[in-house]
């Protein structure tokens, strides 16, 4: 029972931290939208590149077009999940050490490891995950 209470406590804390992080990101809507546009342009250019390659040949090193799109979708999916949970926090750790905020973090009544790894989420990474899932669904209809 005690373990369940601890899990609930950390889940509530994560929801609070995620909500706060998302509000901070959405405060700068222009920057957020430009990040989404950059991701969309990157994916569009990659897909155009793959289309051009596969107009010239059916296979590249044994990979056909649906398999390559599945691989690219997997990359975008994993990247989206990793960036959602870890990217902003990992880059913030050295900054917290430099500013001296890490000492304050260590004194809080929750696990410092939890706060260091789960303090921020990257809302734009949801777009990467959606792209990965979308590429899977496109690929599944082609095979």
Features:
143 residues, mainly alpha, 0% strand
Average pLDDT works out at 83
Portion of residues in beta strands equals under 5%
Question: So what's the oligomer here?
Answer: single chain
Integer tally of domains: 1
What is the count of helical runs?
A: 6
Layout of SSEs?
Elements: H1 2-26, H2 29-56, H3 65-99, H4 101-106, H5 112-118, H6 125-142
Helix pairs in contact: 3-6
What does this structure look like?
Helices cover 83% and strands 0% of the residues. The chain starts with a helix and ends with a helix. The model has no long low-confidence stretch (mean pLDDT 83). By secondary structure, the chain is mostly helical. Helix 3 (65-99) packs antiparallel against helix 6. It is elongated and about 60 Å long. The longest helix has 35 residues, at 65-99. The protein contains six helices and no strands. The protein has helices at residues 2-26, 29-56, 65-99, 101-106, 112-118, 125-142. It has one domain (2-142).
Quickly describe the structure.
With 143 residues, this protein is mainly alpha-helical. It has one domain. It contains six helices and no strands.
């Amino acid at each position: 029972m005690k373990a369940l209470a601890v899990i609930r406590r950390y889940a509530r804390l994560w929801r609070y931290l995620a909500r706060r992080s998302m509000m901070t990101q959405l405060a700068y809507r222009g920057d957020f939208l430009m990040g989404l546009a950059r991701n969309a342009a990157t994916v569009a250019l990659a897909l155009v590149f793959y289309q051009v390659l596969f107009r010239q040949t059916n296979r590249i090193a044994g990979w056909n077009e649906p398999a390559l799109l599945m691989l690219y979708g997997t990359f975008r999916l994993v990247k989206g999940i990793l960036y959602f949970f870890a990217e902003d926090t990992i880059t913030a750790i050295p900054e917290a050490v430099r500013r001296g905020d890490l000492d304050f973090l260590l004194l809080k009544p929750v696990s410092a490891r939890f706060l260091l790894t789960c303090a921020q989420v990257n809302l734009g990474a949801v777009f990467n995950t959606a792209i990965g899932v979308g590429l899977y669904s496109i690929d599944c209809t082609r095979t």
